[in-house]
Amino acid sequence: MAVKVVTDTTADLPPAIMKELGIIAIPLYVRFGEQVYKDGIDITQDDFYKRLPVDPVHPNTSQPSPQDFLDVYEKLADNKDGIISIHISKKLSGTWESANQAKQMMEGRVAIEVIDSLSVSMGLGLLAIQAGRMAQQGAGLEEIKNEIEKAVSQIHLMGIFDTLKYLAAGGRIGRGKALLGSVLNVKPLLEIKDGEFAPVGQVRSREKSIERLVEWVKGFNNVVALSVVHTTTPDEAEVLAGRLDGVFPKDKIIISRLGAALGTHAGPGTLWVAVQSSG
Q: Which domains are assigned to the chain?
């Protein structure tokens, strides 16, 4: 049996890729008042994004419990090759901590490595894909762990937020707080740095912000993986992928959509790019 790869739904992995590589994504929880949904299971992306801007109750999110991880790990416990569990930055969520607690409960039953991606969305997703491909090729747990830990520093994510109000409402703004007061009427650009969102600039038009994303990607050498992620603008994501074709082949660019857990904090109109660069 191959090493099993576990991640969480903030990886925003397309279902076809998860199926192909046998990746398991443990859902976070999204709450509208008393109504609780498992991300990607109990609420569809379309239903969530229709509800988000009009519901008088702003949703909040919570990490999976240690028991949620334990349930999955126990099902995989017969796999003697082990489990690699890669998750959203622990500066943004308690998901890593829940996974680590479950790992301790499984001690002596199956080898588990829990890795902090220091990223989110397809920044995390690209790491899970790399791990999944290595597992399919027969790599062992220690080899996969070592390569993924090296790859963490190769992952970069930058994005356009149509507004910071959703990020602020969810308390996930991190160092972006410095921008909050001044960017409510412009298009903020944020980047994941050291595992949290940090401001990298602001522009006054959507087109200029997309141009900034294109130029940012062009600044990387040896791009080995690339993803464009959106919340509500699939056509825009396709166009952006086309503009990046000179940097990385368009047919290999993964276009994905933020699920409800991240969409709660990102909001409609969000557009991100995740890059893995070996240079």
A: 4-153 (3.40.50.10170), 154-277 (3.30.1180.10)
